[in-house]
Amino acid sequence: SQLEDEISTLRQVLAAKEKHLVEIKQKLGISLMNELKQNFSKSWHDMQTTSAYKKTHETLSHAGQKATAAISNVGTAISKKFGDMSYSIRHSISMPAMRNSPTFKSFEEKVETTVTSLKTKVGGTSHTGGSFEEVLSSTAHASAQSSLAGTRLPESEEELQC
C-alpha cells in the first residue's frame, strides 16, 4: 500500500513537471516543429559520422564515377558511329551506296529485329513482316499525316515570309 502511494505521488510530481516544461518552452518560443527539426538534424549528423555511412558513400561515389565514365564511352561510340554514317552520306553518290555500308546494314538489322519484337509483343504476329524500308515509309507517312492535321498552311506570301 505504501509503495502504491509513492508511485501515485511520483506520477503527480512528474505530471506537474511536464506541465511546467511545456510552459517554459512556450515562453522561450520552442515549438514541437523546432524540436523535430533539431532532432532530425542531430540524427542525420550522427548517421553521417558512422563508418557504415562513410563506406557506403565512398562505394556509391566510386560506382557513380565508373558509371559516368561508361556512359560517356557509350556516348562517344554512338557519336562516332553517327559521324561515320554522316560522312558516308556526304561522300556517297547515292543512297544505295550508303545502304550497302556495313554500318547501315548493322543498324538496319537491329531496327528490323526491334520492330519484329515489338510487333510480336504488342499485337501478335502480323500478316506481312514488312521490310525496313516499308516500316520507314509507313512511319514517315503517318508522321506527315499527323503533322499536316494540326498545321495551317499560309494563305498569302506575307505569311509565308514571316
From TrEMBL:
<protein>
    <submittedName>
        <fullName>TPD53 protein</fullName>
    </submittedName>
</protein>
<dbReference type="GO" id="GO:0005737">
    <property type="term" value="C:cytoplasm"/>
</dbReference>
<comment type="similarity">
    <text>Belongs to the TPD52 family.</text>
</comment>
<feature type="region of interest" description="Disordered">
    <location>
        <begin position="143"/>
        <end position="162"/>
    </location>
</feature>
<dbReference type="InterPro" id="IPR007327">
    <property type="entry name" value="TPD52"/>
</dbReference>
<dbReference type="GO" id="GO:2001235">
    <property type="term" value="P:positive regulation of apoptotic signaling pathway"/>
</dbReference>
<keyword id="KW-0175">Coiled coil</keyword>
<dbReference type="Pfam" id="PF04201">
    <property type="entry name" value="TPD52"/>
</dbReference>
